[in-house]
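Researcher: Good morning. I'm working through a list of sequences from a screen, and I'd like to move beyond sequence-only analysis. For each chain I'm collecting a predicted structure so we can compare shapes side by side. This is the next one on the list. No need for commentary yet; just the structure.
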Amino acid sequence: MIKMSETDLQLKKLHDKLNSHIEEQSKNWKSFVYAKQNGFYQGFDEIKIQGCRSTEKRFREYKIEKFFDKNFSGLDIGSNCGFFTIYVSRYLGSIDGVEINPYLVKIANDTKDFLKINNVNYYTSSFEEFKPKHKYDLVFSLANDETIDGLTKFTFTEYVQKIVDLLNEHGILAFESQASDTYYIKKFEPKLEILKNNFHILEQRIVKSEYPANVPKRYFLILQRK
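Model: Good morning. Structure tokens for this chain:
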């Protein structure tokens, strides 16, 4: 019998805890659940969690480090399991994650505690109802301006306006499109016009996406508040 190392033992305990939240979610969360096949939409190599979209791969694909500052405060809209929020926290002074699904917030908090991250806070709330205590230098909207679970109530104009209101002067928005925006180009064009009305486009490109399989790329923009 091979004896587990202390690190592997601690990871197993973490995995057991995170999977218990997935099981709890499957029993009690009545809205649509992303990544039903393995329970995790986000993956996190650092803690050996395989998800539909790897946090580390997404970060490398976005190429956004040059817009970070250790004095910046950040907000991750629809933070899901919180893995991406945790990953970018190493580059910022602080970051908040807002997520409506309480079981995903439990996963995020347990992972944060396991990694001893102390500059991240998660809020169980819809973005519409979210009332932060301060404004932000950097906001992440990563495929979260609308959701197929039917829980998003904002129009895109309302969604963008709230982001503008939450950003400090000349604040940065990192925006990734929905899968459907890439699949139906005509759907994204009016969104792009609304973004242009409120932001200067610093960078605009196509990034690879691992999920869903039929949409292997998304639009990605770095925008600065006007």
